[in-house]
Amino acid sequence: MKRNICHTFLLATAAWLLASCGEDRTYEFLAKTEVDNWIEDQMQEVYLYYQDMPQLEQESYFRPPEEFFPMLLSSQDKFSYLETLPEVKKRNAIQPVTYGFDFEMGGDPTGTSSRQVARVLQVLPQSPAAQAGLQRGDFIVQADGRNLSNDNADLLRSGGGVALTVLPLLTDEETGLQQWGTDTLKCTLQPAVAMENNPFYLARVYEQGGMKVGYLVYNEFKKGVGDEDNTYMDQMLQVFQSFKQQGVEEFILDLRYNQGGYVVSAQLLASLLAPADRLGQEFAHFVFSDKQQALNYSLPLLQEYAACNLDLDRLFIISGAYTASASEMMVNCLRPYMTVNLLGTRTVGKNVAMTQIDSPYGFTMYPVTSTVYNANGESDYASGFTPEYVITENNYYPWREMGDPDELLLRNALQWVAGQTPADAENVSAPEEPEGTEEPDTTVRVRTWTERGYSSIRRKGFPAAILPSRHAAQTLYK
């Protein structure tokens, strides 16, 4: 009723204004507001928070879609978004052009200036960044001689090449304070190239406490190199078949840089990790608004891939500030069946799903349309999951490469697997010193690296996760 009253008011106002000028231009008015009215009609129908949509002023309906859409969102909605056609094409690109490394901007870790620096998070093998010698944990202070900031950080993503200035961080032996070293590294990245960003960044097996421990750095819940491709789903089965053949008894899943992805990928991964006797039971279910209850939907743990299932009774997950959505779904939806241990920092807190709506006007909307629950009916992680052992990776220097047993978070996770208290846990008053392990003598705390800025990971356009096509609406979990 509210929607009809609003449209009637708009039409009446338009007719009066245009007729008062001596010329009936009603259809011109309708043409200029048609797109925004279409957007609002769709949102009223499918949006989970449709009852909280604000009532907009008449002039708002003349705005471009990318400006109008955010105006409709509820104050409790942090995730709904709209993509224009160029953005959709860029997101769906099979091989993005890149220098091949991820980074985030932050404040000067020495605390001696107000400038920003970029810290390298991970480097893709055989990329321009790897060939130039850039390493995980490096601090980049300049690009082409210019100081870095949130405004020019795109210089580090792609282009025709860029000269970087990297500075080492040292600790004053007397004061314990950090200071920049003088051993400056100058490196030049060759032009950006098209690279496949395979979500399986690293898979290894370690011996710990007489057990075989599987370790997987998994950066995106992704089906394949395109929306209709299942290459990475097949690769997941191959990876876990290898884990099973090697006799893996415990498992560490590294999701610190994983923002989410396809629900079916999360469903498959959970089916390979869960206890074998739980296969066939509910993994997750999705509850829509009171207008769309017919769309409520459940996903099971898949029995057809039992041959690759590791039959675990507990799982260790490394989390970080980027761990979101389908990654959090793994934590929440496996907990009814096994012990899920979390180590790292608090996750983002996305317990809702989204629906893809392709418009006839050249853009795509992704409004929040449902809440995600586990088999126990739980969905209480809108503020994220706090790990049992909190370790803030950014507070340490230097970093080691992913997969190195002495890499900060992996080392602590391996200690936990072996029944020890992680040595670097910040929420434990006096962690026990693990027997038979030595802390790398070059690792120091960097307490001033707290200001987060531009992040290349958050700028990535991950494909939205689509539930099975039998759905009347294509529900996404991203």
Structural class: alpha+beta
**Percentage of residues in helical conformation:** 10-25%
Major beta-sheet overview = 7 strands, antiparallel
Number of domains: 3
Mean pLDDT over the residues: 86
CATH fold annotation of the largest domain: 2-enoyl-CoA Hydratase, Chain A, domain 1
Notes on the structure:
By secondary structure, the protein is an alpha+beta fold. The chain contains nine helices and 27 strands. Strands 3, 4, 5, 6, 7, 10 and 26 form a seven-stranded antiparallel beta sheet that branches. Strands 12-13-14-17-18-23 form a six-stranded mixed beta sheet, sandwiched between helices. A hairpin with a 6-residue loop joins strand 8 (169-171) and strand 9 (178-180). Helix 1 runs antiparallel to helix 2. The longest helix has 21 residues, at 26-46. It starts with a helix and ends with a strand. The model is unreliable at 1-5 and 462-478 (pLDDT under 50).
List keywords for this structure.
Pdz3 Domain, 6-stranded mixed beta sheet, disordered N terminus, 478 residues, 2-enoyl-CoA Hydratase, Chain A, domain 1, 7-stranded antiparallel beta sheet, 27 strands, globular, alpha+beta
